Amino acid sequence: ARSHLADRYGLVRTEAAKTITALAEEPEKEWKAILASATHGHTIARAILALAKLNPASIADEVHEMADHEDKFVRMAVAQGLVAVGGERQLGLLRALAGDPEISVRTAVTRACPKLEDGEEAVRLMAGLLFDDAQSVRRSAIVNLADIAADGVAPLFVKVLKREPAAPLRREAAQLVRKAKDAPSVLKELEALAKQEKEERVRKSLE
Three-class SS of residue 167? Predict the structure, then answer.
């Protein structure tokens, strides 16, 4: 199964990782050995994700060191691993990854944010990603913002509704804003936005 960890297809890599964890007598030891000898980005990424689930503390140093790895798949795994690992460097490294040149890495950060223990920090991280140059990153940020249980989420949705140029993304924001724990604080603003919105489907979602 080890050889399939570097397969070009994500599903194959996922199944290979599951097999290794299920069949190894000592999964953590097995994954540590894989990580120590791995040279392919896919293999390193899978090892990081596996160890982050098995024993986050055991991989803290590696996760921190690989935040600027040349392979984007490793940096994507680091973004997810940082949530499990925690530590003083967690937020600083996530902020750096939020500015990564690769769209897929920035998207990985949007998925990591709802899992952070500090909801306020998660909101602050999302604030920039919601207005990313890439529409796919903005969409992921909108979807994942709704899963952050912290104050400040609803006002961010309002900013998206005011500034987002893509109508489908404004519609998603309109559909999700009421899930926010602080949604009651922006109801009047939502009413005003509904009157100003020119796109009918967005307007109906706001009403």
Answer: helix
